[in-house]
Amino acid sequence: MARLLFLVLSALVAAIPFGLVVTSLYGGDEDLRTHGSGNIGATNVARVYGWRLAGTVIALDMAKGFLPVLIARWMWPDDRIWFPSVVMLTCVVAHCFPPYLDFRGGKGVATGAGGLLALSPYVTVPAVAAWIAILGITGMSSVAALGATAAALLIAFTVHPEVVPSVVLLGIGIVATHVPNIRRLLRGDETTIIKPVRWGRGAPAQDDVSALLQQGPGGGPAPPSWTDET
Fold first, then answer.
1. pTM, full prediction
2. Who's near 84: CB < 8 A, 6+ residues apart?
3. Which of 101, 117, 139, 157 is most buried, most CB within 10 Å of its CB?
4. Does residue 46 sit in helix, strand or coil?
5. pLDDT digits (tens, 9 = 90+) for 26-41
6. pLDDT (average), residues 205-220
7. Residue ranges of the domains in the chain?
């Protein structure tokens, strides 16, 4: 009975739509549900309001997954992984389907990452690093989320096999919430939320003859006499 009550309380807290709360208090008049992608998660907050508010939302969404799992591990240490895993998955489901917003919530990435961090930091920290790296390379939050999910599963198999079932279920949920993004990726319509990292810059095109004449023999700045009239 105590575990059931804890699950209900955890779900009610995890269902709080912090994206909507934070932007309503500190943002502007734009409702996340009618702007950007229409999602209330941190990605759409970044798209509509910028990363200052999005960072706050990410921290709060992670906390509502992290704290319940951490408390569950402290209150029921004999349950080892199984009950904290149920708490993590319950929080993710509540975040994605909040009763406060007609069951239309976020995509569960930050809340899942927070819960997994309390469950297995050895899996979560490298997966978050993978998310940051993929986001920097592609600029697409959906690609980063899916790539980090795959990384978490691979890392779990390697360093903490006990949490593999939980990571698999979490991964299935994240893929399910990203089905519209996957369709856009296949169509080539997915948008970026940051500029991808540019590893090199190509030389600008020199189509103008006069511009070519301004270059030296090696393509660099011309010596003073290079374009002098003879």
1. 0.82
2. 69, 72, 73, 76, 118, 119
3. 117
4. helix
5. 877 888 888 888 888 8
6. 48
7. 2-187
